[in-house]
Design brief:
Length: 97
């Protein structure tokens, strides 16, 4: 007699994370950005909302070095701090060089 409970012979099928793997930075290509982010967290009692620019810079570095899949920064929650393109009014007010 088996002591294991059988719930309809359903087997667990593991699947990869939605955003893929997140490889380690073995060559330290983004170490400077990571350290700035970690220092900011420490200086702000680990309130990550105070370190969004450092987080954005770190993720941009990881994407540039193929350490994570390229994603639009808006999808990663940085829409509000993105460099917005100049409006037509601002372009017209800008002096020509």
């Amino acid at each position: 007699m088996s002591t294991a409970m059988n719930f309809g012979n359903k087997s667990f099928k593991p699947r990869p994370p939605d955003k893929g793997s997140f490889p380690l930075d073995h060559f330290g290509e983004c170490k400077e950005f990571k350290e700035k982010f970690m220092k900011c967290l420490k200086n702000n009692s680990y309130d990550n909302s105070q370190c969004r620019l450092q987080s954005k810079d770190y993720l941009e570095c990881r994407m540039e070095h193929q350490l994570m899949a390229k994603e639009p920064l808006e999808k990663l929650g940085f829409k509000d701090i993105m460099d917005s393109p100049l409006s037509q009014a601002e372009k017209n007010d800008k002096p020509l060089n």
